[in-house]
């Protein structure tokens, strides 16, 4: 996604027409299609309409409050389309069913012809049809603008008709083709978005999920219908803990599972917040619950940021951040590049240079994924002291417990004006499936977020798991020590088979494949054939390249399977 600079005001406004605008459109249709193009007889009342108007949806574009153009959409399942005036349905080279919509009357008024308005109207039609489950769009376009339709992804069907002085061709586009074409015009779409006050009741962009790995579910089934295969695969494409949760959690859930599943949890996660506060040396008012860090990221960023906001992130880093910033909020993002020459550790000079610009939000993942690097608490405090209070600082400490509890900035955040710490309990407490996380920061930062936090945001089993996990620090400390031993052994073995391995403090390793060999995508695909799932990290940054893998640390047996699969994939 390209960077976007918001304009102070929007040039165009697109919306569903009002009754008053429909009246004006009837007059405008007479002016264009009767007077100008001679396709209809002129009449004394100066209005045009037809039987389709009763169930068509009209979109209008206005410029400075003035109507500039419109388009009409005919939904499926109605008696007729506009094309029925010219063609028998039995002659059509496609089937008219519930998946087919028609767009018609694409009109830009004289004063605004030659602008982007026709493209904006067609994109609005695509989004409407796309969001209503349509699969195909049919249109009759006059030959003067058919090249535009073809650029958008429509294809001529070899049927034409004469109306007035114009010849019309029948065109059809599948929603999939039209979407592919629009995605290929990303820069144009971004400019269009920046210039448009989008008032249609569907979003400008379709939802675009962020890829997080988890491809291994193809092997066991998204509907969990092949769970017996769970032990035959190695899910090292995600960073789930290799060890089980605390025995205290397992015992309590096993004993109380029926009750936990049928019972409503504490509405505001009060007990969980109290336990977190006590464990971290803060107050409950400084803690906000979330169903995983993604829930917290979406909730907070959509509240804090708008299209004109500016955000600074690391590159590469956890992909959810650029996804939410660029594809959900659609604001500007700058990146601090993490360099190969520095083993992808953050260069403090580069960061200080980036701070010369003003930002609304700065995101730091520490330890960082996929690099496995971290900055000490001392260095983090130095960095934070250079950031103006007008910029919020989001510190993601998902993997901090692998380094040490004493390195967390939670207590620093509580007394800070602008620092918020995000803590997922997924990876370090073996609770990825439970979805339990929290934010820690000043009460003034938590209060606006608490207002939009839904009741029961964390499930009953997950609240219990979070509470019992914090009650068993000695168990987890022992697992972290084992993880370090497993990681160092895996690092050494990966190096022996020809990978360049970057030192890490967490439960994963960033690896570079040999130069001139297979790319990460191909190696990952080959490993899948061995039941081993690894992560190609090219999507986690803009410049890391196509030959880097992230490998999760697993138990000794699974680590051996990872090594054997990589040997086969690289050398086979």
Q: Which key features would you list for this structure?
A:
single chain; 572 residues; alpha/beta; Aminopeptidase; Aspartate Aminotransferase, domain 1; Aspartate Aminotransferase, domain 2; 8-stranded mixed beta sheet; 18 helices; 21 strands; disordered N terminus
Structure, explained:
By secondary structure, this protein is α/β, with parallel strands linked by helices. The chain folds into 3 domains: 12-198, Aminopeptidase, CATH 3.40.630.30; 217-237 and 475-571, Alpha-Beta Complex (Aspartate Aminotransferase, domain 1); 257-472, Type I PLP-dependent aspartate aminotransferase-like (Major domain) (Aspartate Aminotransferase, domain 2), CATH 3.40.640. It is built from 18 helices and 21 strands. The strands form 4 sheets. Strands 6-7-5-4-3-2-1-8 form an 8-stranded mixed beta sheet, sandwiched between helices. A 7-stranded mixed beta sheet has the order 10-16-15-14-13-11-12, sandwiched between helices. A hairpin with a 2-residue loop joins strand 6 and strand 7. Helix 7 (247-262) packs antiparallel against helix 15, helix 8 packs parallel to helix 15 (460-470) and helix 16 runs parallel beside helix 18 (556-571). The longest helix has 24 residues, at 473-496.
